[in-house]
Amino acid sequence: MKKFILFFTLPFLFFACNENTKSTEETPIKITEKPEFAIVIHGGAGTILRKNMTPEKEAEYRAKLKEAIQIGYEILKNGGTSLDAVTKTINVMEDSPLFNAGKGAVFTHEETNEMDASIMDGKTLNAGASAGTTTVKNPIDLARAVMEQSPHVMLSGKGAENFATEHGLDILDPSYFYTDRRFKALQRIKDSEKTELDHDEKKTAFYDADIKNSKFGTVGCAALDKDGNLAAGTSTGGMTNKRWGRIGDSPIIGSGTYANNATCAVSSTGWGEYFIRAQVAHDISAMMEYKGVSLEEAAREVIYNKMGKLGGDGGIVAVDKDGNMVFEFNTEGMYRASMNDKGELVVEIYEK
Ligand code: ASP
To answer: The whole model's pTM is what?
Structure first.
């Protein structure tokens, strides 16, 4: 449903070709110069409708997206790494109760908050992930520590928390993650489950089409730094009412996160089961690598023709090795923002 591309062009071409060089929505502009760096973020995709949003709430989301991306922008502008930009940008959203990551994570069926995160370095193809943690303040920091300070790619549960403690990460009482809003959302779903007549497991409220979109809010970031290195990361509380230790796509390298300097960096958000089955993030990169298609084309193909056709919904943010940035999603909205090396900021919420 929604496409957004930012391209960059030299100022002189503006005059020479009389082209509209201002980066505006739905106005793809031909690349004439590779930007030095670029950063793109999301704060979750789903049924985000203007009619359900107050101006105050919307302003809050916009301000937080702006605050988060500006952290990463400054890092990149000062010659910092894409990995640092991704980590620090995600930290801001993890610390905000607005998003389903860190503080504000959604509740499991058992009324706990179980968080997943992952990060990938496009230069080395090294990656780290954590799943099902309940006490680590910033799960993206844990994912990064797993990548940089362990021989493994993914740690889970208690073991991941022990690793976090051993590596000096912030550990908090699980009550830190509690928010009224997310707790009430769980109660609403549990209530609707009680009234469910058909007890087929697949028809529990978790899968109910009417409410499945109400529980997104995952955060993610993809960035290109001045050294040409790409990185991507994703952090989430998963889906409201998840149970049985359910783990979504966010901590799965190739589904929720992927980065490769030869192609692009991608962070996903949406109905995780479908993103895992469609291998969304890696598939986009693979299409670019093996078929030579553009980031935009690859993202559209995977979101609509693969993941979407399976029945899933959600979206991605991505940046390629040349600094092209793409938002692609098949939901009504996605909290999202981008900044190029000229400091031009775009913050969007709705599909249109
Ligand atoms: N993808 C996440 C999950 O399934 C949820 C989301 O992105 O909102 O766990």
So the answer is: 0.89
